[in-house]
Amino acid sequence: MAAKNVTIYTTPTCSFCHAAKEFFAENNVEFTEHDVAKDGQAREDMIKKSGQMGVPVIDVDGNLVVGFDRNRLTELLGL
Amino acid sequence: MRDLIIIGASAAGVPAGVYASRRKLDFKILSGDFGGEMARSGEIENWPGVVHTTGVELAGKFREQAKANNIAIDEGVTVTELRREDDGFVVRGKNNGTEIEERARTVIVTTGVHPRELDIPGEKALRTKGVSYCTVCDGPLFDGKTVATIGGGNSALESAIMLSEIAEKVYVINKNPQFQGDTTLIEKVTEQLTQKNVEVIYNAMTQKILGDGFVSGLEYTTEDSDEPQKLEVDGIFVHIGMIPNSDFLPDDVERNEYGNVKVDMIGKTSVPGLFAAGDVTSMPYQQLAIAAGQGVAALLTAVDYLNKLKT
């Protein structure tokens, strides 16, 4: 199965962001992380893409998941 | 049937689990998330033995300890029903969408609390679009913006302190004539930060949240006039109290007028075999250090109960 392109938008103090990254680690999923507390451009991108301001926002091959939705991520990642 | 189910995996539930594991009980933890309000706390400087930590860091330590003790935790679970059945309890709910049913001789409820809403126009529609109930989670997104924190206690004060480092301007809207909470926090906000970028508005009731797509402002009234005043803000953080997560419990579990589960000193509820600990209980002080102690006490009481069942 082709590797998925996974991006996660996070802030350092967000516990669900942490849980999502642990979930990726447990399942050997590679991902790119954007800290939207520091990166203003990434913040704008995230708000534009997702139409809202909550973190985490996870992009799996263009499919957006807002919040740590374990079920949906399992589905999208083919786990 | 298991010996025990613990519902909730935060400051009360996980310590109870550690003790349960060391007592070699047959048990599991069911929880919506790992860490609850503990993980959503910002700076923590009053956890016993630790000078300074954060909610995420402390929740991480709890998770390490849970792993080291091989505690089974089902996350993503919403419990919808708990009932007495045969010699124990049946717990029903959904695990990430799939129906679940678990049975145990005893249950410890450590489901904590959730934020109270203002219940005003615009609030629901603009949730996550500028309205937030967690400054720690969402504050960082308002770098350089204008924000408002609504509330009059420690949570609102902590919110204002965090936001003053991030936002350009912070309004604090307090419905009372003064703040209630830790003196250090009150002084920090009302004496130091008001010299910087924080403005406190007292005796003000927020009436409406404004915005088309995203938050653009809010309206409030004061005792002086019914004419609403308007503030232009990009973000609104609501910190007006917490509500116990106790709705799923059967009627024979006694609660106080706020919905907190009534417990005695060792975690017993009005239902034999059902125990509770942490912020969901009638303990008037909602603190991490207290929740942990209550969780351990409830577990030891559950063990005592289980031992008596065997004799």
Q: What is the terminal separation of chain A in angstroms?
A: 11 Å
Round the Cα radius of gyration of chain A to an integer and report it: 12 Å
Helix content of chain A: 25-40%
Estimate the helix proportion of chain B, in percent.
10-25%
Number of E strands of chain A: 4
Widest sheet: strand ordering of chain A: 2-1-3-4
Largest two-chain interface: A-B, 21 and 29 residues
What key attributes describe this structure?
heterodimer; A: 79 residues; alpha+beta; four-stranded mixed sheet; 4 strands; globular; B: 311 residues; alpha/beta; seven-stranded mixed sheet; five-stranded parallel sheet; 7 helices
Quick summary:
The complex is a heterodimer of chains A (79) and B (311). With 79 residues, chain A is α+β, with helices and mostly antiparallel strands.
Could you explain the architecture of this structure?
The complex is a heterodimer of chains A (79) and B (311). Helices cover 39% and strands 22% of the residues of chain A. Chain A has three helices and four strands. Chain A has helices at residues 15-26, 40-50, 70-77; strands at 6-10, 32-35, 57-60, 63-66. In chain A, a hairpin with a 2-residue loop joins β3 (57-60) and β4. Chain B is of the alpha/beta class and 311 residues long. Classes of the chains: A alpha+beta (79), B alpha/beta (311).
Secondary-structure map with pairings?
The complex is a heterodimer of chains A (79) and B (311).
Chain A lengths: L5 E5 L4 H12 L5 E4 L4 H11 L6 E4 L2 E4 L3 H8 L2
Parallel strand pairs in A: 1-2
Antiparallel strand pairs in A: 1-3, 3-4
Chain B lengths: L1 E6 L5 H10 L4 E5 L4 H4 L3 E2 L8 E2 H14 L4 E3 L1 E9 L2 E8 L2 E12 L3 E3 L15 E2 L2 H4 L7 E5 L3 H11 L4 E5 L9 H10 L5 E4 L2 E9 L1 E9 L2 E8 L2 E4 L3 E3 L29 E3 L11 H23 L1
Parallel strand pairs in B: 1-2, 1-8, 2-5, 8-19, 10-17, 11-12, 11-17, 12-13
Antiparallel strand pairs in B: 3-4, 6-7, 7-8, 9-18, 14-15, 15-16
Helix pairs in contact in B: 1-3, 1-7, 5-6
